[in-house]
TrEMBL record:
Pfam families (UniProt xref): Phasin_2 (PF09361)
All copies of domain Phasin, residue ranges: 30-127
Source organism of the structure: Caenispirillum bisanense
Superkingdom in the source lineage: Bacteria
Name of the protein in question: Phasin family protein
Length: 151
């Protein structure tokens, strides 16, 4: 079990901000916004990590499959009776391997795109929420500040 690291000082952001007494600033809302930002970044990192894990797992499966197919292809070519049959078999196997490689590359690229889209969507959603929260804070500060007029 990891030992708890003791900090040489005790710093509470909420307490510090409330002591500043900045008019129109809701410290609790500010702290809540930053907490939501941290949660969104944590979720985005988790999604990115899980996506990369799935991609690496699939690539390992594809490599294993390619090695097995190469071994089977080698025995298939060796089993051909004439040089012409060997050349035809090798050409056929090369074509199949190329088509499989293109298909596998497309699959992995689609997995990457899906993972990236999920992460970007999550971050875009949070960014929109931050703008809405900022709009609310500014509106609240305008109401609280004396002598401000709406234009």
């Amino acid at each position: 079990m990891a030992a708890k690291t003791e900090m040489p000082f005790d710093f509470d952001v909420t307490k510090y901000m409330s002591e500043l007494k900045v008019p129109g600033v809701d410290v609790d809302a500010l702290v809540a916004t930053q907490q939501k930002n941290l949660e969104a970044m944590t979720a985005a990192n988790r999604l990115a990590f899980e996506g990369m894990q799935a991609i690496l797992k699939r690539q390992a499966e594809l490599i294993r499959q390619a090695v097995e197919e190469a071994a089977a292809a080698a025995s298939g070519i060796a089993g051909a009776s004439t040089p012409t049959d060997k050349m035809l078999k090798q050409t056929e196997l090369t074509k199949e391997a190329f088509e499989r490689a293109v298909s596998n590359g497309r699959e992995v690229a689609e997995m990457m795109a899906k993972s990236n889209t999920e992460v970007a969507d999550l971050l875009n959603k949070r960014f929109t929420e931050v703008l809405d929260e900022l709009k609310g804070v500014v509106a609240q500060a305008a109401k609280a500040a004396p002598g401000t007029a709406k234009k």
